[in-house]
Amino acid sequence: MHGLINRSIQNYFCANYGRELWADVASRAGLDFTEFEVMLTYPDHITPAVLDAVCAVLDRSRAEVMEDVGTFLVAQPGYGAVRRLLRFGGVSFGDFLQSLDDLPDRTRLALSELRLPWIELREDPDGQYSLICAAPLVGYGYLMMGVLRAMADDYGALVLLEHCGRAAGVETLKIILVEVDFSEGRSFELGARA
């Protein structure tokens, strides 16, 4: 797993619960280090072990933790690059949803070594949406729920999200776009400020 993924989990945990408690997570996960390096690649078994340790230390479910990490990646001020990458998808939340299929490719343009699982947005006959997520890591759909919830707030949209389960390594989300202009969204400029 790419170090950026593991470091994001570490940053989420440390920002919310502190570095001292992170040492307990690293120990429970069987790590012989406490800091993930962003540009390294780690064996695939490490990320689930770290997530299991986080869940044990916090006494929370994988679903709750993954959704919180997804929200953290968008809403935390230090992750402005993630927000810009996502906002590049369109000027409205509806546009953003329609661009989700391209997210793994857009991510590779920014960081060629990072391979996100594929996702596919389907518009249902009733005007609702389904987001199909390849989920090699159990809970990836919940991470995407956190991202979608934070992005809806960012755009000022009112959405209802439901995780519909996991089957054969795929997780499905139901997205109901209740109101596009529910509140004033956060201001956004595509370019980063120097």
Automatic annotation (TrEMBL):
Superkingdom to which the source organism belongs: Bacteria
Pfam family, one: HNOB
InterPro entries: H-NOX_domain_sf, Heme_NO-bd, NO_sig/Golgi_transp_ligand-bd
Chain ranges of the Heme NO-binding domain: 2-157
PANTHER family referenced in this protein's UniProt entry, alphabetically: GUANYLATE CYCLASE SOLUBLE SUBUNIT BETA-2, SOLUBLE GUANYLATE CYCLASE GCY-32-RELATED
Name the record gives this protein: Heme NO-binding domain-containing protein
